[in-house]
Design a protein that fits this description.
With 448 residues, the chain is mainly alpha-helical. It contains 18 helices and two strands. A hairpin with a 2-residue loop joins strand 1 and strand 2. Helix 2 crosses helix 12 and helix 3 packs across helix 9. The longest helix has 34 residues. It is globular. The protein starts with 10 loop residues before the first helix and ends with a helix. The relative contact order is 0.21. The structure holds phenylalanine. Phenylalanine binds next to helix 1, helix 2, helix 10 and helix 14. The site of phenylalanine has 15 residues, from helix 1, helix 2, helix 10 and helix 14.
Length: 448
């Protein structure tokens, strides 16, 4: 309902909320394990290229579509497309993806709660060897009920915040959380870099071995870039529908991409030096961060305090991300299905509870239940980032680059000619040609 829309109060709030959406488990949990599985340096180079030439223009495209239409993703495409065309159908894929992401994301966010409390009560602060931490993870996730209970706690908090609406909470929380998390990460980055053998980790992350570039590495890096920037599910589009007219879109997009990348690289700078120093394997998958970090913490003075602080901040970073991905379906339910905000938030909550439960049990009771050889958790995680998000991104870039009214695009991107005029042609070029071709090329390479 139009009259329920509140806009973000300040430009800083806009950036903080979008950065809050972008920064989360994607940077600190997913980036290190994806980089670890896909060869480190080679992955990083492709990741950076994707963020710069595809990611930033795509953030701009979502921003433009959202702000120009001031409504949810389906309404937005319908409003801006040519009469009779069917572009708005792609919005269903975005909404579906956001719900799938929420369903597995809440499980990992639940792990952060378990680890936060385990740090406080001492279960994680012993001076044990790395085997202890990997056993801890396996026992905990294998137990089924404990991870499920944390996922439900997380989803319930997410629901309670969402019921209250966009502005209250999100802006203020992101403003505070992001800098604090940054400080804690930098402290551990220094700690990790001082460990014996850290140089090996740096080499792994920064020295690319081009022979390691396979179709899988390309797909993984592209998916990770989109996941980390919250692209292709229309999160940023939905947030931009709450932006005021004077928010500079290109500048905001660049700041978001820059900060998001900085967080991911810092996470890599913590994980890889420590990993090589402990002689652990980089290709551990989703367990990686939850095994390495507690080990580093437990071997640091005041580790219990640091660990609790870190996991609590990671939990906050996760909740600013889940709020943003939930907002997509909530705005859709409110505006297209005419639900009240309370009911829409409840529906989002219930859907996530059902699928979140299946994902939470994927490491225990349902670990043998596989589709295409993957557990539901892995399936949701891979199919959204590697396929659904890139497909939506192709549509958004073509829509903004080719289909939208040129004047509208220009006026939105440059704030009526007042900002970013110099970048306009380059962004349009990337949207028209570079982004769709790059994404398609990765898909085609994969198929071949
Ligand atoms: N970008 C978020 C992260 O890195 C995840 C996310 C994906 C948020 C899609 C919103 C939409 O954790």
């Amino acid at each position: 309902m139009k009259n329920q829309r509140t806009l973000f109060a300040t430009k800083l709030g806009v950036i903080a909320a979008s950065v809050g959406s972008a920064i989360g488990l994607g940077n600190i949990w997913r980036f290190p394990y994806e980089a670890g599985q896909h060869g480190g340096g080679a992955f990083l180079i492709i990741y950076l290229a994707m963020v710069t030439i595809v990611g930033i223009p795509l953030i701009c495209s979502e921003f433009v579509i959202g702000r120009a239409s001031q409504t949810n993703v389906l309404g937005a495409l319908r409003k801006l497309e040519r009469r009779g065309s069917r572009w708005h159908w792609i919005s269903y894929l975005g909404i579906l993806s956001s719900l799938m992401i929420l369903s597995f994301y809440c499980v990992v966010a639940g792990w952060t709660l378990e680890y936060g409390f385990a740090s406080i009560n001492g279960a994680l602060s012993s001076q044990a060897g790395e085997q202890y931490y990997s056993d801890y993870f396996r026992t905990f996730t294998g137990e089924s009920m404990r991870p499920l209970h944390w996922a439900i706690v997380f989803l319930t908090l997410n629901y309670l915040i969402l019921r209250r609406g966009v502005r209250s909470g999100i802006e203020r929380m992101s403003n505070l959380m992001t800098p604090l998390l940054f400080v804690i990460l930098v402290v551990f980055c220094v700690k990790s870099l001082m460990m014996p053998g850290a140089a090996e980790g740096l080499k792994f992350l920064f020295v690319p071995d081009f022979s390691k570039i396979t179709p899988d590495v390309l797909l993984g890096a592209m998916g990770q870039a989109f996941f980390s920037l919250s692209l292709g599910v229309s999160t940023l589009l939905t947030y931009a529908s709450y932006f005021k007219r004077d928010v500079p879109l290109v500048k905001s997009a660049s700041i978001i991409a820059g900060l998001d990348t900085a967080f991911a690289i810092i996470a890599g700078l913590i994980i890889f030096p420590a990993l090589f120093s402990f002689n652990m394997e980089p290709a551990e998958g989703p367990r990686l961060v939850f095994e390495v970090l507690p080990y580093i913490f437990s071997h640091t003075a005041g580790g219990q305090f640091w660990a609790a602080g870190f996991f609590f901040l990671l939990f906050l970073a996760s909740i600013t991300s889940t709020i943003s991905m939930s907002e997509i379906s909530i705005a859709f339910f409110c505006e297209e299905w005419h639900m009240s905000r309370e009911k829409a938030s409840l529906l989002n909550y219930v859907i996530a509870l059902v699928f979140g439960t299946i994902c939470a049990l994927s490491f225990g009771m349902l670990s043998d239940f596989t589709i295409f050889g993957m557990t539901v958790f892995d399936l949701f995680n891979n199919i959204t980032a590697n396929y659904f998000m890139p497909i939506c991104c192709i549509f958004f870039s073509i829509f903004a680059g080719w289909m939208m009214d040129k004047n509208l695009l220009h006026n939105q991107l440059t704030n009526n000619g007042k900002t970013a005029r110099r970048f306009f042609p380059a962004i349009v070029f990337c949207l028209k040609f570079v982004a769709p071709t790059a994404i398609l090329a990765v898909f085609v390479y994969q198929l071949i």
